[in-house]
């Protein structure tokens, strides 16, 4: 009796799509968090370097008089 009940629960597919979406959403959120952790410091350093390069650049003005 117990084995047949467990077998019925395992083979039941109602709600399986919901579980798939929950797992897929959790994977996407986890991947996004991982990318943030891995890229945060490198992008911050790149931002500082490019900002400093732009600040050090002298823009020449052209006169059409």
UniProtKB/TrEMBL annotation:
The chain crosses the membrane at residues 21-39. Keywords: Membrane, Transmembrane, Transmembrane helix. This is Flp pilus assembly protein, pilin Flp.
């Amino acid at each position: 009796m117990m084995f047949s009940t467990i077998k019925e629960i395992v083979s039941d597919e109602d709600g399986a799509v919901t579980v798939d979406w929950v797992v897929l959403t959790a994977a996407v959120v986890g991947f996004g968090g991982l990318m943030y952790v891995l890229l945060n410091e490198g992008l911050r350093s790149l931002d500082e370097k490019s900002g400093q390069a732009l600040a050090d650049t002298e823009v020449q003005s052209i006169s059409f008089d």
